[in-house]
Design goal:
Layout (H helix, E strand, L loop, with lengths): L1 H20 L3 E6 L6 E2 L1 H8 L13 E5 L7 H8 L3 H12 L8 E4 L2 H10 L3 E6 L7 E3 L1 E2 L15
Parallel strand pairs: 2-7, 3-4, 3-5
Antiparallel strand pairs: 1-5, 1-6
C-alpha cells in the first residue's frame, strides 16, 4: 500500500514537472523590423543561422534562452528537430566568423531576451508569452498569433 502511494506521488510530480516545462512561446521582434509574419520553414532557417539578412537589408539575429533549459525542450523538438547538444554545435557553427553580429544569441532569462530583442535592430526571439511587453512586436508564425488555436509554439 505504501509503495503504491509513493509511486502515485512520484508519477504526479513527474507529470507536473513536464507540464510546467511546456509553456506557450511567442516569436517577438524588434519594433523597427518590417517582419510581421514568418513561416515555420523560414523560422527554422533564422534559428539555424541560415538567414543572414531580412528583405529590408537589416542583419538577422535570433535570440533564445539556453537550449539546455527545461523550458526550451519543446522549442528544440518543434523547430530544431535535433537534440540539445547538436543545437549548441549548430549555434557555434552559425556564429563562427560573426563576432560583431552573431546569428544566434543565448540569454539567461525572458526579461533579458525581451530587452535584447528591443535593443537590436533585426533581432527576433522566442519568449514566454507572459514576458512580452510593449518594447517588442509579436510576429505571426504560420499565420497565427500566440494563444490562437493551432499556434505552432503552444506548449501544453
Amino acid at each position: 500500500m505504501f509503495q503504491r502511494q509513493t509511486l502515485t506521488i512520484c508519477l504526479f510530480l513527474v507529470a507536473t514537472a513536464s507540464l510546467a516545462a511546456a509553456r506557450d512561446l511567442a516569436l517577438v521582434s524588434n519594433k523597427a523590423n518590417t517582419v510581421s509574419a514568418i513561416t515555420l520553414p523560414d523560422l527554422v532557417k533564422v534559428c539555424k543561422g541560415q538567414t543572414s539578412r531580412w528583405p529590408d537589408g537589416k542583419p538577422v539575429t535570433f535570440i533564445m534562452r539556453n537550449p539546455a533549459a527545461p523550458e526550451m525542450k519543446f522549442f528544440l523538438e518543434k523547430v530544431y528537430e535535433i537534440p540539445e547538444p547538436q543545437v549548441k554545435e549548430l549555434i557555434a557553427s552559425a556564429n563562427h566568423g560573426r563576432l560583431g553580429h552573431p546569428a544566434v544569441m543565448i540569454v539567461n532569462s525572458d526579461e533579458d531576451l525581451v530587452n535584447k530583442v528591443a535593443s537590436i535592430p533585426g533581432a527576433v526571439g522566442v519568449v514566454d508569452v507572459y514576458a512580452i511587453n510593449s518594447s517588442v512586436a509579436v510576429v505571426k508564425l504560420a499565420g497565427k498569433l500566440p494563444l490562437e488555436s493551432g499556434y505552432l509554439l503552444h506548449g501544453n
